[in-house]
Amino acid sequence: MRAAILRGRGRAPTAGPRVRAGSAAGADRVLRHPAAKPVVFALCLLPLAMLLAGALGGTLGANPAEALIRSTGDWTLRFLCLALAVTPLRQATGWHALARWRRMLGLFVFFYACLHFLAYAWLDMGLVLSDIVRDVGKRPFVLAGSAALLLLAALAATSFDAAVRALGGRRWRALHRAVYAAALLALLHFFWMRAGKNDFAEVGVYAAVVAVLLGWRIGKNLIQSRVAAGN
After folding, report:
1. Residue 45: its pLDDT value, please?
2. Coil, strand or helix: which one is 58?
């Protein structure tokens, strides 16, 4: 009996990891379901549908133009945080199917960034190119936002398999690390925009999220470098 108890004690600690591994595998199967990606795609379009409904229904407040510009900018930052969270979440949970959504989320970042710029260029600048160029040179937060948009455009243009083959894996990965530069420029754009109102609460939330995700990436790379050096 004593031997049986000891054997039972020896086996007990392995139950937790097995349960966690089974849960991760189950969640991964759900994420790989053929219906999962279309559902996520539809959810990503939901903010646009809500904004269009608000614009058509006249429920965007006293200044609909400002509401559209602000909301599309907010959703750009939210999708940027989601796209940056894919790799850390995949590594932390073992939900490897999340990698299938990274490209789609990244393209939605660019999509909402384009909507944000279009809303600004149309509703604020009247689509007058000379006024837009002058505004970019005049106001630092517009310059930072424009630079972030250009980086996102480069990332979106090279997000497809043909670009990976043309650039090569190493160069492609180096280029796509620029997403963190785009995130920092987007935060700077938001910070300078809010500086006029002395309202930095939301800026702080987004900055904290980006800092955690960037810190995870840096820490993971350092650990991998040390392991590789040790081998």
Report:
1. 97
2. coil
